[in-house]
Amino acid sequence: MKLSDRHGVRHLARPRPSVRRAHSLFAVGLLLGTALVGIDQPNAVAASTSAAITVNARAGLATVPDTALGVNHAIWDSQLGTTETSDLLRTAGVQMMRYPGGSYADIYRWEDHTAPGGYVAPGTDFDTFMAGVRRAGAQPMIIANYGTGTPEEAAEWVRYANVTKGYDARYWTVGNENYGNGHYGSAWEADHHPDKSATYYANLVVEYADAMKAVDPSIKVGAVLTMPANWPDGLTAGDDPGPWNQTVLDIAGQKIDFVDVHWYPGGSAAESLPRTSHITDAVHLLREQITRYAGPDAGRIGISLTEVNVTSQGMTSQPAALFLADAYSGLLANGVFTVHWWNVRNGIGQVSTVAGQTDYGDFGMLSSGTCTSDGSVCEPPLNTPFAAYHGLSMMSRFARTGDQFIRAASDDPLVAAHAVRRANGEVAVLLVNRDPDHAHEVTIDYAGFAPSSGEPTVHTHTNGATAITTSRSGSATSRTLPPYSLTTLVVQSAAPATGHPGAPGQPTATEVTDRTATISWPAATRGASPIAKYEVHRQYGAVSEQLGETSGTSLTVDNLVPGRRYTVNVLTRDTAGRVSWASPPLSFTTGAPTTSSCGVRFTRTTDWGNGYVANVDIVNNTDTEIDGWTLTWTWPTTWQRVGSGWSANWEQVGTTVRVTSTDDNRRIPAEGGTSAGFVGEYSGPNVTPTAFRLNGTLCAVL
């Protein structure tokens, strides 16, 4: 962590992105990549000022938990415990607060409220923090000191919090960004242990979890991981058996209840805003790692994302509000149980002008009232809300505890859309206009939901506004979005919300092959009429495709495409034609055939965070020689590519890779094989392809 000098006191603070980019082999964050056309330049004229939005109530995503909206508190913030702070956070709808603040967690001694080497402001002790949490009606997320602490010290903190004081603090993380302890070459996180490896951290996490749960078995203990495609993902150091995430999950997976990750996209405002489109793949990869390495019952392990910010430009101006609402929505829709902005207050940084507004380069969402070192520029008065605060306030109006996210999509890259369905039958639609210069006319089409003809409730936050405006106006199907704005429509249903059957329970997939999968689910409860059948729907963007229906609670679907990820929901339909909410989503990926005339082994041998070296082994399983061959596959994302290759001719068009033989290896003998290799590049989550074709034949994956 970077040392910064504020108010004449040196203390640890969140590193600026330039510091992170200087780290050895750092991949500049989770969502790096070329910005979408029309977004690279903030003043670029959009190709079109109209957008078509689709909202699909049949395509259900995650349900909003009561821990969803979070923020970070830090013990160097002298306003941490004030009533005004708690009231502002309550008003914004904050549900969880993290303490004692980023890297400070790994030097903080809770028993005497000190942080050797750092600054501790008065009135920021644990009891004061908890009083503020309770006033705001939130829950705490507490970071146990790993870097300079012990399992015994953490256990005593649990005892004090939950036995002595009765705070019922449920969530405890062991450390903060502990991969930044120098093990991979970059060191900002305090770690006084003789061994800095992922293996050592994981084994100590087991000791922490055992000691802490011996005091209070009901708590949930989390371990620090890194987001896929975020440094040091993919890197193996020292004697660890694999990269950080793999090692920690393999050793500590059976002892933890959740994993904790951070995400700072970096770049300019125009670059960071569209990177939210990578969230689904990033969370998918993280969940895949948990499933692969954490052992039996890995599905019980939750995901928290406890630090996020735009980090480079627009931290106190409108890009922060747009990014916060878009990122929180995307992460929560994909099942992350809490998302935390870094942080409540931080202090003035590099001052600039963004979309006509002064940006103070402050990671906080409330002004600290500080000035530049020469006194030439000062922030607004203490506790003045910055744009991120209004973005969080918009989230509390949009996605409430118990709402179910449903698919929403836009055909315009400058307009993002999210939606939730509420128990009272309403649908809320969040629209993000990322264009700083132009209003966008949008039309909204609803599937599986009939909007009322009445005026919807409309919440709007525009560039430079000091509050969210609320009114009832217009229609549910069209809207003009001001430049650089957030708009939430709360739309009532034209049909009564009573009498509908219940949604089926969480579906599961078994017997998944390259072409088929068996989907099963817990039965739903009937409504006013008996249940007639269940329908299985595949999500295809924001459009649903019905894969089949049955009167039972299991269905085998076929004609699937090999190597493709599917997300499906099950809906209940009763004898009167009423349809339930969508079940929780189920995602699975079809593979390759177990036997084939050819086989392919795809192996990444070296990974440095935004690129890797891979070997591709091709096997001829027939008794006939192959004379001349072409291997093809399709990348799962648009940000993956072949940089260079050897032992073959390599070509990529769009997302399709075509590899052809050379004169030296055109012949693959019967029951023999050949190999080629390439340097791969990625600027977002690096999802491995799972379907390969040799001369048009689908191969087994070895």
TrEMBL record:
<dbReference type="InterPro" id="IPR001919">
    <property type="entry name" value="CBD2"/>
</dbReference>
<dbReference type="InterPro" id="IPR008965">
    <property type="entry name" value="CBM2/CBM3_carb-bd_dom_sf"/>
</dbReference>
<dbReference type="Pfam" id="PF00553">
    <property type="entry name" value="CBM_2"/>
</dbReference>
<dbReference type="GO" id="GO:0030247">
    <property type="term" value="F:polysaccharide binding"/>
</dbReference>
<keyword id="KW-0624">Polysaccharide degradation</keyword>
<keyword id="KW-0378">Hydrolase</keyword>
<dbReference type="InterPro" id="IPR017853">
    <property type="entry name" value="GH"/>
</dbReference>
<protein>
    <submittedName>
        <fullName>Alpha-L-arabinofuranosidase</fullName>
    </submittedName>
</protein>
<dbReference type="Pfam" id="PF00041">
    <property type="entry name" value="fn3"/>
</dbReference>
<dbReference type="InterPro" id="IPR003961">
    <property type="entry name" value="FN3_dom"/>
</dbReference>
<dbReference type="GO" id="GO:0000272">
    <property type="term" value="P:polysaccharide catabolic process"/>
</dbReference>
<dbReference type="InterPro" id="IPR013780">
    <property type="entry name" value="Glyco_hydro_b"/>
</dbReference>
<keyword id="KW-0326">Glycosidase</keyword>
<feature type="domain" description="Fibronectin type-III">
    <location>
        <begin position="503"/>
        <end position="593"/>
    </location>
</feature>
<dbReference type="InterPro" id="IPR013783">
    <property type="entry name" value="Ig-like_fold"/>
</dbReference>
<keyword id="KW-0119">Carbohydrate metabolism</keyword>
<dbReference type="InterPro" id="IPR036116">
    <property type="entry name" value="FN3_sf"/>
</dbReference>
<dbReference type="GO" id="GO:0004553">
    <property type="term" value="F:hydrolase activity, hydrolyzing O-glycosyl compounds"/>
</dbReference>
<feature type="domain" description="CBM2">
    <location>
        <begin position="591"/>
        <end position="702"/>
    </location>
</feature>
<dbReference type="InterPro" id="IPR012291">
    <property type="entry name" value="CBM2_carb-bd_dom_sf"/>
</dbReference>
